[in-house]
Amino acid sequence: MILQTDTISLTLQGNRLLNDIALEVRPGEVLGLIGPNGAGKSTLLRVMAGLLRPDTGCVFLDGRDLFTMPPEERGRHLAYLPQEAPASIGMSVRDVVALGRLPHRRTASAQQDAAAVRQALDAVGMSAFADRSSASLSGGERARILLARALAVQAPVMLADEPVAALDPAQALTVMNLFGQYAAQGQAVAVVLHDLALAARFCTRIAVLSEGRLVGIGTPAEVLTDALFAEVYGVAVRRCGEVAVPWSLVASTRRP
Ligand SMILES: Nc1ncnc2c1ncn2[C@@H]1O[C@H](COP(=O)(O)OP(=O)(O)OP(=O)(O)O)[C@@H](O)[C@H]1O
Fold this sequence. Notes:
There is one protein chain. The relative contact order is 0.17. With 256 residues, this protein is an alpha/beta fold. A hairpin with a 2-residue loop joins strand 11 and strand 12. The protein has helices spanning 41-48, 71-77, 93-98, 110-123, 139-152, 169-184, 196-202, 220-223, 226-233, and strands at 3-12, 15-25, 30-34, 56-61, 64-65, 78-81, 157-161, 188-192, 205-210, 213-218, 235-240, 243-249. The chain is globular and about 55 Å long. The protein has 9 helices and 12 strands. The protein binds adenosine-5'-triphosphate. Adenosine-5'-triphosphate (ATP) is lined by residues 12-13, 15, 17, 35, 37-43.
């Protein structure tokens, strides 16, 4: 399935958070969403997930308006992994992951649900934690369980908001590899990342947001230029091999 935003704009409490953003997430690709803190990445992802309605513009899933689709159907097509989720007090890890099956409650058997939860836990290496209380997890473990919940949806489109922010390098690689495999199976993935080395390594294309606007989109090589680091992030980089390492702040009119 292809997910498209058609020049969407959104103002909340007098703040223009998104400004005429048109992009698409295609089957088989991992689209990275990058940009400084407060650029609008999470807001955009929530609009793409159908959780926030834009003031103008539409979001289309295979040409259908996302906001006229029955919520359960939308939930089967789109898996959304939030940046943060409230602790699920009293729920086991398995039960938290099973929440991902809610959109399927009228369409899937108990066996299909159980198999999807098992596979998702296995994919994130958390099967041994299935009976643990979700409240007892470390930050990184909780992040992997949230990812498992999103994987359990088995949706053709995955929208993930900073899924590796709490993870060590090995876990981060594992998760990004999972998204790569997901895309290789023909699913469409959009992922918000601050780690630009991971974005360069795993994203097919990268979209750059700054102050609510889409200021660049293309392959990692096209987008992750020294000019981008200076103009969008206000940092100068040094190149260590192929990796750009943020090195120093540059004078900018945009940053405080
Ligand atoms: N409900 C709201 N009302 C008003 N402003 C909001 C609301 N939600 C978010 N914002 C503001 O919108 C801007 C974009 O927020 P958003 O969370 O989308 O940024 P982000 O790019 O994901 O940032 P980060 O990298 O820090 O997670 C921020 O300045 C934020 O304070």
